[in-house]
Amino acid sequence: MTGAGEVQEDIKVEELSLDDLRKDKGGQDADEKGPGGLRGGGLGPEGSRYRPPEVPRVRTWKPIAIAVILFIGAGYGVFTIGYQMTLEGRAEGDIYTMWGRVLDYDAAYDLQQELPIAGVNVSVDGVDDSYVTRSDGKFRIRDIPGGKFTIRFYKRSWSESVNSIYTSILYTNVDEDRAATFLVKVENLAPDRDRPVYEGTHGVHAEVIDWPTNHTVSLRVHATAFDEALTGFTVQMGEPSEHLIDMGPYSNHFNYSFSVGGDQSSLTVKVLDDLGDPYAQTILAIPDHPLGPGGWENTDYPLVSAFVRGGKYTNGADRTLLVHSNGATGFTYRVNGSAWMDWTAMTDDQGEFTWSPQGDDGDREIEVMTRNGTQVNGTSTTVTVTLDTLPPTLEPESTGGPAVTNEATFNPGTLDADFFRYSLPDGNWSAWQVYMNEVLVEIDDSDPEATEATVMFQGRDRAGNMASANGVVTIKHQKEHNVDDHAGFYSNLMICIPIQAIGILLAIFGGMMAYKRKRPTMVMLGAMGALLAGYGIVGAIIAAAALVIVMMSREEFEMPGPAPER
User: What is the β-pairing status of strands 95-104 and 216-223?
Assistant: First the structure.
């Protein structure tokens, strides 16, 4: 700082040219030491005398190999995109065989366990072949059209159910050793109880209702059935000590012709199930033969025998009585001790009359007497006919709680019906069967919105009176589990294609940088792009190979800054 009177000395400013700046104090060119500053590649301010180390310019095969690897990665990415986009179209028109394995969905994800599901019905839409999974959960379906297909898994028991639908793409055969895995949802329906099983012994009820000829008997047959509609069952019959004769499908009426001179005192009636195994059997005694007790034609006058056609029970319908006595020429009858009716002539020792029941319900004692040609009365016999016009009571009731399958247990709710039947889901009726206090009935639960199922029951007594009533049961539906792998595949593809496209561009860019031996960081980025383009193990291998070679050849790439003099 100077005083006011002092003369200020002029400050001289030295002007420096660019060449001067390039000279050091000793007159040496600054370029020989290299410029400083960030732009010059140094660490100090621009103009510093710090000189970075020189980078040798070595040329080997490694950058070219890196470029080739990255270009391969980009090409593989292009190939995988095209392969996936045309996968379904290329598979269409071909036929494949598929092995699959059904596993529990929840066990796989929650417990990390492979739990096979046996007994699952497997089917493919449009394919006739179907399969039931084995104990290891495996199945095989043949002749599946390639491309998009829908495969269904269905199982339902009293404790658990499976109702899964998969939509996917099939483009190659699948063998047993590499079975496709399908995870299905298993829903507990009624884990507190099992399917009811009838513990008793099934039986068959048979009775004689007519003798069309002297050696042909007409029978009414009813079997008991807890969980069978008796459809597909068959019946066999035979005389004592004789082979049983196949009578055809199960029915409630049969005609059996005895062998001439055979034993007509009894008849074996046997019911076989739909597999041909014995189901129920009875031995029917035949005491009420119109030609005499036990079926023998030895009812000589003055003895008389009588038989009621159609059975001894009636709901008001007329009954025809057959009368026989060897040597008799006429007969008469009376009801409940009333006056005898007029005598009626007999032909060939036989006669018949029609009786019309009247009055209140109850038993009617019909007494029949014959006489010979000299008008001498013989002995009499009495048969009982029961008049019953009251319909049976019928109040069906569900006994097993909600229906967890397409079956439900019902009590028909009657004590005065001898036989009953129930409606089937197809609109038909089951066969008439002997009354049971509980029966397992097939129901229609095909409507997923329905909360109840109705089953119609009919009861009938031996007189022919009938009653109808509906039984209602609550339905517990199983849920449907849908897995659309087909849509999921294309949704993922729409996400993966842009990612792979970015990876392809990066791999190409990195390959070009490697080929020109520039910017190793960009080459590394290209390796990451190859990983994205390959989208899997191949991409990982390509990226790893490229990165390893890059790390081995960094000295071959140009570093930032001017190239060293040669």
Answer: unpaired
- Per-residue pLDDT reduced to its tens digit, 311-336: 999 999 999 999 999 999 999 999 99
Contact 434, 207 (CB under 8 A): no
Residues 6+ apart with CB under 8 A from 523: 66, 70, 510, 513, 514, 546, 550, 557
CATH of the domain spanning 397-474, picked from 2.60.40.10, 3.90.1310.10, 1.25.40.10, 3.30.310.50 = 2.60.40.10
Q: How far apart are CA 290 and CA 210, in angstroms?
A: 9
Q: Look-up: residue for tokens 């003798």?
A: 211
Report the mean per-residue pLDDT for the chain.
86
What does the block give as tokens for 492? 């993922």
- Rounded to whole angstroms, the Cα distance separating 435 from 410 reads 12
- DSSP-derived letter for residue 556 is G
User: How far apart (Å, rounded) are the C-alpha atoms in residues 278 and 111?
Assistant: 47
Strand partners, 169: 148
Chain centroid to CA 247: 36
CB of 449 within 8 A of CB of 430? no
Q: Which residues pair with 319 in a beta bridge?
A: 355
Alpha carbon separation from 96 to 141, 290, 371 (Å, rounded):
9, 70, 87
Helix (H) or strand (E) holding 548: helix 537-552
What whole-number distance in Å separates Cα of residue 45 and Cα of residue 47?
Answer: 6
For 234, phi then psi, to 5°, come to -130, 165
Q: What is the DSSP letter of 293?
A: G
Per-residue pLDDT, averaged over 31-50, amounts to 48
Q: Give me the DSSP letters along 492-549.
A: HHHHHHHHHHHHHHHHHHHHHHHHHTB-HHHHHHHHHHHHHHHTSHHHHHHHHHHHHH
Predicted confidence (pLDDT) per residue in 388-431, tens digit: 999 999 999 999 889 998 999 999 998 899 999 999 999 999 99
Nearest to 556 by CA among 62, 54, 68: 62
Q: Which two tokens stand for residue 560?
A: 């930032």
- Looking at domain 293-387, its CATH architecture is Sandwich (2.60)
Q: Assess whether pLDDT exceeds 90 at residue 245.
A: yes
What angle, 0 to 180 degrees and rounded to 10, lies between the N-to-C axes of helices 62-85 and 485-516?
160
DSSP state of 300: B
Give the helix ranges, DSSP H, for 40-186.
62-85, 87-91, 105-110
The residues spanned by each domain of the chain are 62-85+486-556, 92-188, 204-285, 293-387, 397-474
Give pLDDT, residue 565: 52
Q: 77 and 539 in contact (C-beta within 8 Å)?
A: yes
Amino acid found at 465: N
Residues 6+ apart with CB under 8 A from 10: none
Answer yes or no: are the C-beta atoms of 321 and 355 closer than 8 Å. Answer: yes
Quote the tokens at residue 79: 């190939």
Question: pTM above 0.70?
Answer: no
Report the topology of domain 204-285: Immunoglobulin-like (2.60.40)
